[in-house]
Amino acid sequence: MKLQSVLDLPDCKVLIEGNPQREVSKVFCCDLLSIAMSKAPADGVWVTVMGNKNTLAVAALADIACLILAEGVTLDEGTLMQAEKEGIAVLATELPVFDIALKVYEAGK
């Protein structure tokens, strides 16, 4: 599926658009950065509640297409600006991790 399908999810607020035409491989849920560093799929949508600059660094390292911050978490302006430079889409939602991950999965069906 294209990233645009994720950007269009009504439960998410788009903070950084990234590349809407980028192909997305799968959804990945993890809150431990060390695990995400080794297991996050390239071109994936990573759903987490970890909203800090280290999360973005891991997302860039893993070549994540989109970072979704669940449970009302967000990133500071400096980190959002870095996400834009890296070409990583960033979305925020009030939904729990599982609920938004399921919506991403269903959008790709």
From TrEMBL:
UniProt-listed Gene3D superfamilies: HprK N-terminal domain-like
Recorded hits in Pfam families, A to Z, give: DRTGG
> Which residues does the UniProt record annotate as the domain DRTGG?
12-104
- Which SUPFAM superfamilies does this UniProt record tie to the protein? HprK N-terminal domain-like
User: This protein is called what?
Assistant: DRTGG domain-containing protein
- Record organism: Faecalicatena contorta
What taxonomic classification does the UniProt entry list for its organism?
Bacteria, Bacillati, Bacillota, Clostridia, Lachnospirales
